[in-house]
Amino acid sequence: MEKTHLIQRLKKPTERISPFSFGAGLRNGGIPKEGMDLLSKIWSFDYMGVAEFEHDTVPEALDKIWNYSNENHATKGLVHLPKDVYYICEKGTQEDVENIIQKLYKNEDNLYLKEPAFLRISIQGKDNYKGWLELDNAFMFFIEKEMYKKTLDLFNIK
Question: What is the C-alpha separation between 117 and 52, in angstroms, rounded?
Fold first, then answer.
């Protein structure tokens, strides 16, 4: 796996799609309207504040997940922390994904992320992030079980 540097934070869906989620970059970060209509029922994107999240990185990671899901190379799992963390990744990467999630919980500063993920404080209930999309290696993880289940359905992962 590549080094984790970019993690897009996800929140519960809102009534309407924010036109500012991706700053001055491509509209919806490059995600077509049809795709945003589907995704916005499952989660909303947090504004990350830097250009690396604005130009195709989010749709590229989603495309990778879509592709490995359609090729039946997707898997799912669970990391037991003070709150369970559910994840979706490509088969063969589970151990790396679990290690990254554990590092994010213990001390995310050791990962040198471009923007903080806030997993630990979200697990503690001090923030409203419920899911994350890791952009460098195309995997997702959630502390919100309903959001996780809807994402499994979206990517047709059994």
Answer: 15
